[in-house]
Amino acid sequence: MTTSLLKGQNAALMAGQVTFTVAAANPAVDVSALLLGSNGKVRSDNDLVFYNHPAQDGVRVSDHTVTADLDRIPSGVATVVLVASVDPLQPGAVFTTAPRASIAQAGTAGMAFTAPDFTDRETVVVLAELYRLGDGWKVRAVGQGYASGLAGLATDYGVDIDDDASTSTPPASAVPAQAGPAAGETVNLSKIQRQAPALLEPARQAGQALVNRGIANRRAAVYLILDHDYHMEEMYESFAVQAFAERVLALSANLDDDGTVPVVFSSGREPFLEEIRLDNYRGRIGQLHTQVDWGWGNVADAMRCMVSHYQESGAADPAFVIIQVGDEPWDKSEVRSLLQNTATLGVFWLFVGFGRGKLAFYKNLNASASASFNNVAFYDASKNPGSVPGDRFYTGLIEAFGKWMKP
């Protein structure tokens, strides 16, 4: 029997050899793999494994098959990325239906993954990732398309692709060096085009949501607080939190052009403050959260940490603090008190709920007319926000914030 994986879903692998086979009816594809360090980047250009460099550190490519010997992959490699790209001998060809990836290991049931259909003229797709977890390996179904071709993929993962097209690089005319505002855009997203092209489409979706809400020309400093309670472990392992942070980063590019979002992990101990940027976002949440103990989320302390950072930054623009929550806080009275005390500081708090916990406290923050907060809102992003289409996600994310921002 073959198990079908959904986008974002993961499964455990046994030690030994695992084989990925890619099938695509149209257009014809090339298959390659990337070996990434713990920073989400290749260690050198040799970590791009393709038909002109078919083997590297236990990973080899042959025709439409990638074989990874998990026992031979060096400890410095944290992730192996499986990539399918349109054959460069088919100029103008793009993906509409995604290729199918079949995953096989001796002695186990097979797995398969087909990403949702593409609509934005993607020419490259990251189909799956092998990643280390403790002493073992897991596979994750990804399905991330790139309209900017291999050049966009290379930018994200740190590969230096030559201009001679020897690695299937699309013509230079297909990838503008600096993309100005597209029709209807009020923010120049050229920085994303250069540094994080995979975020270009969500950034445009976020920008359109701001236009629809009438605040496209307003600016704000975006902050992110992430729940690091025990019950969130599955959400981190499945990359749901990583995907959520990427969407917040894409929104930030429209509101604050520094390409950086301060991130606080809320756990049982002191809040852990770091940042996610356009030039380091790949796998960033996974790298950071392993430095934080699991615990019962101390939401109030995390909020105080954000307020201190915002005040010390000297920012003139208001702050939009997005707080991901997966369950009720244990410090409810402190949270309420902090919301009351920050009402005049130019800070808008958006609690975003996803996961399997109880969220009644956050849903009811403004239920009482006598104790409501004009700078606080709640957005239920479902158990898995990655399943929410981008346009609907951003509409829900900024709806209340947009009302608060309007003069």
Automatic annotation (TrEMBL):
Boundaries of each vWA found in TerF C terminus domain copy?
Answer: 219-406
Q: Which InterPro entries match?
A: Stress/Tellurium_Resist (IPR051324), TerD (IPR003325), vWA_TerF_C (IPR019303)
TerD domain residues are 1-157
Quote the CDD domains the UniProt record gives: TerD_like
Instruction: Say which domain of life the source belongs to.
Output: Bacteria
Q: Which Pfam families match?
A: TerD (PF02342), vWA-TerF-like (PF10138)
Family listed: Belongs to the CAPAB/TerDEXZ family.
Protein name listed in UniProt: VWA domain-containing protein
Q: Which organism is it from?
A: Streptomyces auratus AGR0001
